[in-house]
Amino acid sequence: MTATLSRRIAAEFIGTGLLVAAVVGSGIMGERLAGGNVAIALLANTIATGAALVALILTFGPISGAHFNPAVSFVDAIEQGLRWPDASCYVVAQCTGAVSGAVAAHVMFGLPVISFSHHARSGAAQIFSEFIATFGLLCVIWGCARLRSEMAPFAVGAYITAAYWFTASTSFANPAVTIARVSATPFRASVPSMCRAFWLRSWLAQWWQRYCSAGWHRTSGPQQSQS
Asked: Which domains does the chain have, with CATH numbers?
């Protein structure tokens, strides 16, 4: 049974908020405990983010699909898996939930509620990193959804955990998280530089999803006919 729109919006708001609280909170804790070792701080941030993603997708996936990401909702609407009015509501819930999660993390650690970043990450390398991070994330989501949907939460968590380390931008891969992390003390970023490639990477991921869908259909067809 499909959940009502209000329940799905609530799930996206709460899920995105908890995800960003985990991202920002673990970043603050890691920075405080790492004694200046940036690699250890990033490792702590990475593990907490990956674990939170798995738990939150398992929890909210049956309600809203656990997008937690405007890029996912945007492309899902293009593919007609989500109505455009619903997708717009998802995006608003995700962005407001993300900011709320960052604020909650600041309150938990006794930091100013709002602390805007003055450190802009910019340049072609950062933009390309975000393109790769988001493109790969969407490919993982669709690949699992087509063939092994029960493994999607673990695959997404594993991919983001890895992407923290193999991308120069530490894999935001999510415009809502990017907006929220502008107000986060550690691991800060600039919204324009991180979101500039959003439309291109979403379009390319949509093309890749359609291309792979045709391939999966061809390879799965004979197996289905034999069963």
From this structure: 5-216 (1.20.1080.10)
